[in-house]
Amino acid sequence: MTQAAASPPRTRVAAQGWSARVGQWLRRAVRSDGPERHTLALIGKSTLAAGISWVIAHDLMQATSPAFAPFSAVLIMQVTVYRSVTQALRYVGAVSVGVALQAALGLLAGPDLLTFVLMTLFALAIGRWRPLGSQGSQVATAAFFAFSTYVSASSSDQALTQLGQIILLVFIGCGVGVLVNLLVLPPLRYRSAEYGIHTLAQSLCDLLSDIYPALRQEEGLEKEHTAHWRQRAASLGSMVTQAQTSMNTARESIYYNPRRLFRRKHGHHVTFDGYQAVVDALERVSYQVASMTRSLDQEQNEDEDERSGHEHRHFFHGYGDFLASLAHITGLFGEVDEDHLQAQAQQLCKSAGEAQEVHKRLTQCAQDSSLRLSDPSYPYGILLAEAARLMDEFQYTCDVLQHGVDHATQRPSH
Prior knowledge:
Number of strands: 0
Distance between the termini: 28 Å
Helix content: over 70%
Number of helices: 16
Order of helices and strands: HHHHHHHHHHHHHHHH
Shape: elongated
Low-confidence stretches: 1-16, 264-270
Radius of gyration: 29 Å
Strand content: under 5%
């Protein structure tokens, strides 16, 4: 299988000082397409958008409150172009509603305390409107700034002019922010889908790699170990959520993004169907692993005669072999790379076939033994059922990923 060269083993402990950590962070930002580089790019683009907006608002327009423009530009600078566009629309809508609300109430009731209270009440209620999303709170914020501007104006005409200028500045800031995000290194986060899979798969691999050597031992399992495995398996839920979030961000990043056109031109087809199937399957696998660790933990309730028997030890040794084959597959999932996906998908399907053989041997040996497979008070039948479900999930995931690779290679480039 073609893979990137592995990092050389470390021979020294990394420096822990503040300046050393900053240097390490900057080196990661320069050398790898990871979160550090994304953060650095977002900071740089936000600074550029704020600077352009300030020049337009302060130097060209000579606006009374020029800070509205750079503030808006920075506020809508998001990790994807699609998110910048949607947040800009919501923010402009929220500010426009807040300013219009103050203008209407100011003309009808004048700039007094009752007007402010009514404006606040209406603004907070409108801010709950679902289409405004996270920008709903900006309705009240814009209304407060508008009220302050209205009170300080010398006449109603001047107040309305300044309120209209606020909306214009917000439009300018949002427009500049969207254009900068669109034209300057538009974020294409297709790698974040891989990062989410890597994190979840590697966590599963680490857990399975800790379990199967213990199952192969003749001494049996210790309560301390099984309880720890159970706790670690239960914590996989947060990693599943992180992987799903990374997948959504990756899919969202291709909307309105001109960089995807260059990828298509060079034969790269941005699709996440296969990756989504992997994440969904790993999510189900994490639930099955959690169930399996609960069964292993409950195995401690068996009587000593049963646990010391030859068939009992032989069963768990075989189960350890099966989990070792699954750990190998999760390790491969922890290395998926779009540039080498075709070779990796073939290796995954081959490994799934090998795991199927190990699973068949485990099942056959258990059925030929005198173990109480149908007794729910013993873990054998439950563990076999969970092994079958785990095997089905891994086989399905490998097949779906292979199908996605085959479909992408057969699709003509445009």
